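$ run holo --ligand "pyridoxal-5'-phosphate" --emit tokens
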Amino acid sequence: MKFATRAVRAGITPDPTTGSIVPPIYQTATYVLDEIGQDKGFDYTRSSNPTRAVLEANLAALENGKFAVSYASGMSAVDAVARTLSAGDHVVSTDDVYGGVTRLYDQILSRFGLEITYVDTTNPENIAEAIRPNTKMLWLETPTNPLLKITDLEVAAQIAKEHGLLTAVDSTFATPYLLRPLDLGIDLVIHSTTKYLSGHNQIIGGIVVTNDQDLFEQLKFIQKSVGAVSSPFDCWLTLLGLKTLHLRMEKHSTNGLAVAQFLEAHPRVKQVIYPGLPSHPGHEVAKRQMKAFSGMITFELEGDVQTGINFMNAVELCSLAESLGAVETMVTHPATMTHTSVPREDRYARGLTDSLVRLSVGIEDLEDIIADLDQALSLT
Ligand code: PLP
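-- output --
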């Protein structure tokens, strides 16, 4: 089946008891046995749940994977992958990963003996140089949050394989419609389903997809032991969102490219980072490995921190919100929203300047989005 058909249909069959075309929400903690040893494939919802199983089958199919495990959040999915490692193991990671991943590794997992080195994985040589005898995993994110750096997954997977490393990609910004890391030799794909996959700002969730049965069984065991499960209702809402993933990603991508071109030509804008623009250093790799370029844009205004604040307070249609990847256009100002606790020099070292803005372009009418950005820019 082609992608659009899989998005609507994969893993979904009419409910055997009623014929319901939409999978029921199995809102249950446990399942009654006919007799000892005779369950119907489910015993306790921490281990598995029929609504969750449908979501897992659907997302596995979208990633061209065999197995998926659905989690309570993107972060619990990231944490589950880390728990396949042991104390003393070392991870090489993309430097511009989502801040929550850095916080998890640096402030929590390091206390349990996991080591991590952040490198600019856009240059494959940096990956090879960072590998040590105890390195076990290469953790990648592409495009990254928030600087939209692009890593060549085929090249990175090749280096990792030569060194016997597990490879994991946080593909939240790309979605399986635009990028399928398993096809490029990656072992594990992670998403915050909170974002494009559910798509409507309606849930918090995460998923890990793999073709490796051993890894899948480890993840299932960890989930059963830890309990970071997604609720049946959240799984059901995510499934509804996924049915239009292909349509939404087309619109996010066409709107995203047009907004990026508008911003690049605007005199109040100093720099635009968007993988779909030829000015982006990762444009050629992105063009090769992605179907289109998604709706995430990061741009720098001419000015200082107050310019950023002025812009944020001037937008009317765009929502000031910390999330991304939903139908509504949302804007974030890292200096005053997500990175307020990071000292200015550390923020600058990460490339997060005072007037940097992250824009998650929604699927509203393009003219309305551009008109709002234009009037807000005129007030900066
Ligand atoms: N990965 C990326 C790239 C993200 O942007 C986020 C959240 O913003 C996460 C993981 C964490 O996901 P969640 O908020 O669903 O826990």
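-- notes --
The radius of gyration is 21 Å.
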